[in-house]
Design a protein that fits this description.
Layout (H helix, E strand, L loop, with lengths): L1 E8 L6 H17 L4 E3 L14 H5 L1 H26 L2 E3 L3 E3 L9 E7 L5 E5 L5 H7 L9 E4 L2 E5 L8 H6 L5 E6 L4 H18 L2 E10 L8 E2 L4 E3 L11 E4 L6 E6 L2 H10 L25
Parallel strand pairs: 1-2, 1-10, 2-3, 8-9, 9-10
Antiparallel strand pairs: 1-14, 3-5, 4-5, 5-6, 7-8, 10-11, 10-12, 12-13
Helix pairs in contact: 1-3
Length: 294
């Protein structure tokens, strides 16, 4: 399959139609190259807050509500484009007020199939900013999506930095990692996490990033990153584990060809078998002896 992962610059939107037109241009470009799976970043939907005006977009609390109100209409656009262009689309995640989780929003990435099916994945572990300033909370459980392209899971940004979350979806062939990071340090943490999860689970991870400055927002004012597709540095994969990577902070798609047979082969007969040997850690991670030297 061919994967397209975005380095996405958010914009101050003059209208919802402008948002839909921009999204279609991105989808049309990727689909035109033969890409079958398109991945947008975490919190890329924050640009929808600008439809309520600069004052609302710049206000942390009001921006959450403004984006959430537009998510149903945005979902309809994504569903239409997925069907029209025959692609799977992971939409840019958004704060969503879901009554199931009380009066605070979850960070939700919505997933669209070309046959009209829809799904979503909520972020599991919040960053300090999400917890302490924004009040975003953890949502529904981890999922594995069984698709025509293989089994796909989603770990939103910070979630990719926690090995046990990835292990819970170890049956997935692909783990999508939509991210939103302010500085190079944050981008590096998520990139390292994505690469480590590909190593441990002997799978392919796909990282998407927001890029550029947004002076209309306190939440996503600065964005650093690029697209990247990573695999285990083992048989059938690049020695570095990097299948493809964009240019830092340069907007656009990064493309990679991924063969599910290569994933199956490295899991069955790689030089190392991290995924199969995971349970060998059990019992060795309990009591740790301390030996004093000098």
């Amino acid at each position: 399959m061919k994967i397209a992962t975005a380095a996405y610059p958010m914009a101050f939107l003059p209208s919802f139609d402008a948002y839909a037109d921009t999204l279609e241009r991105w989808v049309r470009e990727a689909a035109g190259t033969g890409a079958q799976l398109l991945v947008f970043p975490e919190y890329g939907a924050m640009e929808l807050a600008t439809l309520a005006g600069r004052d609302v977009a710049y206000d942390l609390e009001r921006s959450l509500h403004a984006v959430s109100e537009h998510v149903p209409a945005a979902d309809d656009v994504h569903a239409r484009l997925a069907a029209q262009y025959g692609v799977y689309i992971l939409a840019a995640s958004a704060p969503v007020f879901d009554p199931e989780f009380g009066d605070r929003p979850v960070n939700r990435a919505r997933f669209f199939a070309p046959n009209g099916s829809r799904g979503h994945q909520d972020k599991q572990i919040m960053t300090r900013f999400e917890r302490e300033e924004w009040g975003v909370r953890a949502g529904g459980p981890l999922k594995i999506f069984d698709t025509a392209l293989g089994k796909i899971a989603i770990l939103i940004c910070y979630d990719s930095e926690f090995p046990l979350l990835a292990r819970a979806v170890a049956e997935a062939d692909l783990i999508l990692v939509p991210s939103c990071t302010e500085a190079l340090t944050g981008y590096s943490r998520v990139r390292i996490g994505a690469m480590a999860r590909a190593l441990e689970n002997q799978c392919v991870t796909v990282m998407s990033s927001t890029v550029g400055a947004c002076d209309w927002s306190q939440a996503v004012d600065e964005n650093t990153g690029m697209g990247g597709v990573f695999g285990p540095p083992d048989t059938g994969f690049p020695a570095t584990g990097v299948l493809a990577e964009g240019t830092l902070n340069a907007p656009g798609w990064t493309y990679a060809e991924v063969d599910l047979a290569s994933i199956a082969h490295v899991r069955a007969d790689g030089v190392v078998l991290n995924r199969r040997h995971w349970s060998d850690q059990e019992g060795r991670d309990g009591i740790v002896a301390t030996q004093h030297l000098g």
